[in-house]
Amino acid sequence: MNKSIIYFIFTLAVGISLSLSSCKKPLSFSGGNLDFSRDTVVFDTVFTTIGSVTKRFKIYNNSNKTLKIDQIELIGGAASPFRINVDGLSGTHFADLEINKKDSLFIFVEVTLDPNNGTNPLVIEDRIKFRTNGSDQFVLLAAWGQDAYFHYKEKTTTDFTTWPNDKPHVIYNYFAIDSAHSLTIQQGTNIYLHKNALLFVDKGALNIQGTYGNEITFQGDRLESYYDDVPGQYYGIYFNKALPSSINYTVIKNGIAGIHMYSEDPSNTGYTLQLSNSVIFNNSSYGFFLFQGAKVKAENCIIAKNGIHSLAVIGGGDFNFNHCHLIGYGTGENVSAAVGISNWYNNSLLGQTEVSNINEGTITNSVIYGDVDNELAIDTISDIAITLNFNLQYNLIKSSVVFSSSIFSNNLWNQEPLIKDIPLNDFHFWSTSPMNNSGSLSFPTSNGMDLDQVVRSSPDIGAYEFL
Predict the structure, then answer these.
(1) In sequence order, what E strands does 293-357 have?
(2) Tens digit of each residue's pLDDT (9 = 90 or more) over 188-197
């Protein structure tokens, strides 16, 4: 036979042999079953129409042979609110999968719930079935869901709008209170904001009417426990040249700037905002940002643990904080003084420095403290045309520079306030705190009480009266 033909036949035979060898299936499969990293996947809580985070679990072949999975099936099929992905493939039914010995596969799960037009939480369940060697095993999928009022790029359409409080309100992008309109938010309302969303008070008025025990809460719309203390989940409440507004017994947490106030309506004769009995904390930039001319009066408030300043006054404006906790303890990379005050800013658009008045710059009966050396920073520009009128009395202040100016009197400097538990957000103080009985009756709160509705008979410094 021709040598070239013999060589061709030999080469072909070797190639076929190698090909068959590389595709060889196991001579026998394991007769065992799967093991699981968990038997239940729980989502708590998911708003209707909003998708969840992705959760995952593993399935294991712990035997010494390849295990063949005859079937993986999402029992609810295409109608299920749950979605699964098996080792990179999406679907509701998978067949004839193999897991090598001592190997594993990932299963990914998500859920989106439909509205139920009710006011009670939903409990939705499904199961994933795994069939191997004639035996069925199951992983339970469970989600708690909540119907809500959804606001997407929405504006007030009437002069007076009141949100019902029977269900939560979820804001996508923004909800705007239009010029000369007002929004009232009733006690006990829970408000959730999607990423970068804001409640925008645009030349209108906002009245948030929380009460003791029926507070109003602003937070991000991810309710999985991972997000409980993640800052920067939404923007916050933005006042733009607003009409007189009020916020009472409200918690604002985990945003970017809890409250941002810019200027005010020129017709205002009093404060743009009266803030009382409220807690603003764990925002990634500012707790309260007062910019260029707005006016705020605050009492019995806690503003704490924010990324840069708890209170920032930039480009002027008027403020009166009485019986407040204005404290640092933020965890961001740019943490600065708890209170930063300036009557100027650099206007990059005009290429010039803008300087404004501070007609009222009052902080009384308050604690300004944290874990940086200087928790009070005042940087002002003055000339004959500029008014700077500061009054800081009966405060406990942490500062490496003890101000001797006449605007500071009867203050306690650099004494540990002995707040009970900053990490757990318990801002009460111990009986041995220097804040105890160190306030002044010359600056009473409007209702004569503290944040816990304790009567201030012999006033303490800060938002709480020691019992």
Answers:
(1) 295-299, 302-304, 309-314, 318-322, 325-327, 339-342, 344-347, 352-355
(2) 999 999 999 9
Per the CB < 8 A criterion, the answer to whether 338 and 427 are in contact is no
Residue with the two structure tokens 């679907």: 91
10 vs 244, higher pLDDT:
244
Residue 349 CA: distances (Å) to CA of 342, 345, 346, 352: 19, 12, 9, 8
Question: Is 394 in contact with 438 (CB distance < 8 Å)?
Answer: yes
Residue 400, sorted as left (phi over 0), alpha (psi -120 to 50) or beta, turns out to be: alpha
pLDDT per residue as tens digits for the range 118-133: 787 778 899 999 999 9
d(CA 364, CA 397): 11
Domains and CATH numbers, the chain: 35-145 (2.60.40.10), 149-429 (2.160.20)
For residues 233 and 198, what is the distance between their CA atoms, to the nearest angstrom? 11
Helix (H, G, I), strand (E, B) or coil at 12: helix
Distance CA(260)–CA(239), nearest Å, equals 6
Burial of 454 (0-12, 13-18, 19+ CB in 10 A): middle
